[in-house]
Amino acid sequence: MSEYQTIETNVSERVLTIRLNRPEKHNAFNETMLQELTAVFSRAGQMEDVVCIVLRGNGKSFCAGVDLNWMKDVAANTYEKNYQESLYLAGCFYTIYTCPKPTVAVAHGSVLGGANGLLSACDMAYCTDDAVFSLSEVKIGIVPACISPYVIKRIGEYGARELMLTGRRISGKEAEVYRLVNRSYPASELNVALEAVIGQLKSSGPAAMSHCKTLIDNVSNNLSMKEAIEFTARMIAEIRASEEGQEGMAAFLEKRKPGWIME
């Protein structure tokens, strides 16, 4: 992978780990970080040697939201400049959300404002019990606009109303109750839990997982119930006839591991 200014990347045992790397700023994101995250998630989706992607933060926090210096510059921009930069922000979240590989966010420390968009755009999210979450935009007179499609998908309308209107801080355990994260763990147990999730992903068909993401996206966002009948019937028929589908079904019937599982 190329060198980046604000993130670190590493591929090990078919897992791409992306680490936000501005620890002195609690990984607050600026325009450069958004550009680099958009680029790396776009590239990662096409990497045949990668099964899944893990997004983490270096230092004391996952991400403290928008960098204050960048916010100061943005506040002085014209409407048109603000609009274009906001489109880029929204595009970064959408790139993560639509990445064909499984994506897993792992959060600790502060998870503030826009950081919840990075986390919510991932397929799965886990955190430490003592992580601190806040949709704090209202406290400075703005709104969590670009992250809202992903946060609302995770926690639902009325959970979003409470957390977005109050901007109050919640712990990792509370974030689990709100379903902002899948699970919260004591810090000492988080990596063990992550390895278990990665193990499950590695045992699944790589193409099947990508197809699952396409399936969920279309059923959730694009199709009526009647349209889904045709779409889903065609999808399963095509995948049953695919090379991976044939191998997976043969392995099941022959009581052996499929070829994509590497010892």
Topology, element by element:
Elements (H helix, E strand, L loop, with lengths): L6 E6 L2 E6 L10 H14 L7 E6 L10 H8 L3 H19 L5 E5 L2 E3 L2 H6 L3 E5 L3 E3 L13 H19 L3 E2 H7 L4 E3 L1 H16 L3 H17 L2 H16 L2 H11 L10
Parallel strand pairs: 2-3, 3-4, 4-6, 5-7, 6-9
Antiparallel strand pairs: 1-2, 7-8
Helix pairs in contact: 1-3, 8-9
Describe this structure in words.
With 263 residues, this protein is of the alpha/beta class. It has helices spanning 31-44, 68-75, 79-97, 115-120, 148-166, 172-178, 187-202, 206-222, 225-240, 243-253, and strands at residues 7-12, 15-20, 52-57, 103-107, 110-112, 124-128, 132-134, 170-171, 183-185. It is built from ten helices and nine strands. A hairpin with a 2-residue loop joins strand 1 (7-12) and strand 2. Helix 8 packs antiparallel against helix 9 (225-240). The radius of gyration is 19 Å and the shape is globular. The two termini are 25 Å apart. The mean pLDDT is 95.
